[in-house]
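Continuing the series of single-chain predictions for the mutant panel. This is the parent chain; the variants come on the following pages.
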Amino acid sequence: MGILANVLLASIKLLIGVTSGSKALLADALHSTSNIITAIVIWVTQRITKKGVNISFNHGYGKSEFLAAGFVSFFILAAAIALITVSIGHLLHEPASPPGWEAAAVALISIVSNELLFRYMRCVGSRFKSQTIMANAWANRADSFSSMAVIIGVVGSRFGVHHLDPICALIVVIVIVKISLSILVDSIKSLMDVSVNHIYGEEIEETTRRVNGVLDVSELKTRQIGSHIWAEINIHIEPLAKLKDGESIAERVKERLLEKMPDLENILIHIMPIKHMDISASGEIT
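Parent structure:
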């Protein structure tokens, strides 16, 4: 749905942008094109990441998604820099004529279409717990704001502020650059196994502590593999507990976490005896 909708929007914006002379609409066409590329990358990489582990790739193909996103962001940044150069060139020269009203009409259609697409994709992303689809949904929401800038540029130019259209084109491109840099930084972080404890840490630790037999947890480590999370955690049990009891506790922890957190694909649990256990009058273990 995302690919089809943005192909149609990008084609219309490019055509009307050229015929109406709206530089802001041409920049907005680039924004829609970036959404197409992002959607295609998500579509392809999700099929790659579904492949199982093998001898060569013991952890699967999840990181191909981040690698592809990094290349996409470089492509979009290169196109954005070209548009910045063109827009600055138009600012340095007196425009021949303001863009036509049809550019504003296309921008209005784009706002409505992208908002509907955002709501649809956000619903799908929430249902299937897909962070990549959620990210693409917000990319379409950003396209709506870019189209608002197009309307402002066209209206301003028609009422005598002739340089407003290329200025709005620069604003749209800056938004594209900001989004692309954000994607690039996130991709690099994920490829370097950045921790996602700030997102999942509290829930993992709280769920683990609620399992009967777990006295404490420590050294939680998380990383993102594609759209899934891998975690490693130490659970502390009674020092005199039997080995099979510790393994049973660890198995219950794993089952509870995988059941409660759909994003969690794999968890490694280390069983460790608690070093010091002091039971107060209230029954609290410290």
